[in-house]
Amino acid sequence: MVGEEGQKLGAGQTGEIVARSAMSLGDYWGAPERTAQSFFPGDWFRPYDIGYLDEDSFLYYFGRPQKIPPQGPPSCDARRRGRPIAS
C-alpha cells in the first residue's frame, strides 16, 4: 500500500495497491509511456486499485479511482466480460 507520492502506508491507511514479483509484467509492448506510468521505483507495479491492509495484512479492495490512464482496447471478447474465465 502506498500513498499519492509512493510512500509506504501503515495498517488501516487507504492507498494504492502495488505489487512486485517475478510474475509481474516487464512492460507494455509498444507502449513505453504506459509502462512508465504503471511502475513506481523499485519495479512496484501499480494496477490502479485502491484498498488497505488491516493489522493482520489482509487486503481490503475498494475499487479504482475515477481518473486512471487510458487502458487501450479491451483484452477480451465483450461477450465474456463479467463471466468467469473458468468454473
Description:
The protein is mainly beta. It has one domain (15-80): Roll (Luciferase, domain 3), CATH 2.30.38. It has one helix at 32-37, and strands at 15-19, 39-40, 44-53, 59-63. Strands 1, 2, 3 and 4 form a 4-stranded antiparallel β-sheet that branches. A hairpin with a 5-residue loop joins β3 and β4 (59-63). It is globular. The model is unreliable at 73-87 (pLDDT under 50).
Summarize the structure.
This protein has one helix at about 30-35; strands spanning about 15-20, 40, 45-55, 60-65.
Draw up the topology in text.
Blueprint: E1 15-19, H1 32-37, E2 39-40, E3 44-53, E4 59-63
Antiparallel strand pairs: 1-3, 2-3, 3-4
Total helical segments: 1
For the record, give the distance between the C-alpha atoms at the N and C termini, rounded to a whole number.
31 Å
Largest sheet, described in full? 4 strands, antiparallel
Outline type: globular
